[in-house]
Design goal:
Blueprint: H1 10-15, H2 17-29, H3 34-61, H4 64-82, H5 90-116, H6 124-154, H7 159-180, H8 188-195, H9 200-236
Length: about 240
Amino acid sequence: MATELQTIPLLNLAIIFAPVAVVVVVLFRWSLNGLNALYSVGRMALQLALIGFLLTSVFSLDNPWLVTLVLGVMMTAASWIALDAVQPVRMKLYSRALAAIVLCGGSVLWLVVSVVLAESLFAPKVVIPLAGMIFAGAMNSISLAAERFQAELNRGQSDEVARNAAMQTAMIPVINSMFAVGLVSLPGMMTGQILSGVSPLIAVRYQVVVMCMLFGASGMATALFLKLALPLMSATNVIEPVNGE
């Protein structure tokens, strides 16, 4: 088995955009938001290209302050994006989302890197990829929770009922992914390790770490966010939904 991943030629990389183009054409022909889909694909490619150059520099410099800066930017952006569905109170809830992601995501990141993997907390090649997964998972869960919490309050549900429904909704994607892993899907980290020549038995151990850290970080961050946000959202009583829904 090969010990290194094959470098994908740019021409081969371009081929993978063929199914993307098919979907975009369908969206345009059906008068759906094809332009937004096209923009998202272009933005994705640009962002990944830029982050590739940025991470190359960060990894080569191996500077703790630079790693800290990158983590700070990631947490700040994740907290803001998580509240896109509750824009009327986005600014008021931002500090609460940030606190949840920093405290819960940060603690899980420390546990995984420093204790489980026994690596330096400022080792960029380890910390930054794991932090990205942790903060993104917490961001998505908080986003789902905030939107569902808002919807339940708008329907006149009590704080406790709204909180419980929001927590349950936020955990559905994470729980489903845990049910499906190994049966329906081989997650990206495990697939990448196997392709690079790592034994599947070793790759499985790392994937267990990833699944548990995502479950823990997402659940803890969501629970803390709901606890911190409940007084504000409850006092607001009924929050106008985004786009008048």
